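Worked example 3 (structure in, sequence out).
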């Protein structure tokens, strides 16, 4: 029965994603652009905190600027080394954690975005950029790309998690929040009870965007959710075994109510890891060979109040990551069938 339901769901979702300006393909030949809208009706009233939702780590880092200054998130020693042009080229290999643009990630099914932002030292204006060692695109450009997708897919919901801020004073925060308002307008969902966040309730209000803001500044705006509502424990390891143990432990400690939960299914390089794989970069040194084992762990999980919720990965296109996470929601359908019997 589970296989039949998956086949039916894939049939409903099985259109090829529309071509995008970059001309690149999404993570899968099957488009997940409307997977939330394609869920069975009995899941419309399940809290989003109980659904399985695919996300990306350092979501914006598909492009970083080698020509810009090194970001304020780096140590003084790295900043000095980066005066050598070759160093920035090597940094890029370790700063990039995704291949797909925001639009391509959304079409592949990604609905949670891990966002780190910064002002650019020396800039006269208050422009804010994404950052991961090196500066990425302007935040405004990313927000507009996401908004354009949401306008075309009115039943899809996204989580934007602004969790690191660098070189930003109060004026920068006000500027950023204003840009968020300008980009999404009435799509923004006011912060309220996590358990009240269901697909049906959001659709009725025509809300599509939940903004999490890990800074006390969130208190000034009703549409900014506090960071504590979306904990994302970090394993900080290069070992798949240790990562999986950490993910299992933090899931077992998850609060059953009151917050979403992010399982960061990512490996983090240490200094010696980078030294050994300096030229290869993050993808070739650490991610490519370990991602299949991480995906095997994902396949064994189950969503629910004490199960997985949001799962994030590096290079979400290297394996069928998003579809694998989405299909975990079929297990919630199984529960319903058993109950009815």
């Amino acid at each position: 029965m589970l296989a039949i339901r998956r086949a039916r769901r894939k049939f409903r979702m099985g259109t090829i994603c529309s071509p995008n300006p970059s001309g690149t393909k999404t993570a899968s030949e099957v488009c997940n652009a409307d997977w939330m809208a394609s869920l069975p009706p009995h899941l419309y009233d399940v809290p989003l905190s109980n659904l399985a939702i695919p996300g990306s780590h350092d979501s914006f880092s598909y492009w970083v600027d080698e020509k810009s200054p090194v970001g304020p998130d780096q140590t003084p020693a790295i900043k000095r080394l980066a005066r050598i042009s070759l160093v920035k080229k090597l940094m890029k290999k370790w700063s990039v954690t995704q291949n797909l643009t925001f639009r391509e990630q959304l079409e592949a099914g990604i609905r949670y975005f891990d966002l780190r932002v910064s002002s650019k030292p020396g800039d006269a204006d208050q422009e804010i950029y994404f950052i991961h060692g090196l500066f990425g695109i302007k935040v405004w450009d990313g927000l507009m790309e996401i908004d354009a997708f949401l306008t075309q897919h009115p039943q899809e919901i996204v989580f934007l998690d602004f969790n690191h801020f660098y070189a930003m004073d109060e004026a920068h925060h006000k500027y950023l929040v204003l840009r968020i308002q300008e980009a999404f307008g009435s799509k923004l969902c006011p912060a309220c009870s996590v358990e009240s966040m269901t697909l049906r309730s959001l659709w009725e209000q025509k809300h599509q965007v939940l903004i999490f803001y890990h800074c006390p500044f969130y208190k000034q705006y009703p549409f900014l959710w506090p960071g504590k509502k979306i904990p994302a424990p970090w394993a900080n390891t290069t070992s798949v075994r240790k990562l999986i143990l950490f993910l299992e432990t933090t899931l077992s400690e998850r609060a059953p109510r009151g917050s979403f939960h992010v399982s960061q299914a990512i490996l983090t390089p240490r200094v010696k890891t980078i030294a050994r794989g300096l030229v290869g970069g993050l993808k070739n040194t650490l991610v490519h060979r370990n991602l299949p084992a991480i995906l095997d762990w994902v396949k064994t999980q189950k969503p629910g109040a004490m199960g997985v919720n949001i799962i994030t990965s590096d290079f979400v296109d290297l394996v069928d990551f998003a579809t694998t996470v989405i299909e975990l929601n079929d297990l919630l359908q199984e529960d319903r069938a058993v109950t009815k019997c």
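Notes: The mean pLDDT is 88. Residues 42-332 form a domain with the TIM Barrel fold (CATH 3.20.20.190).
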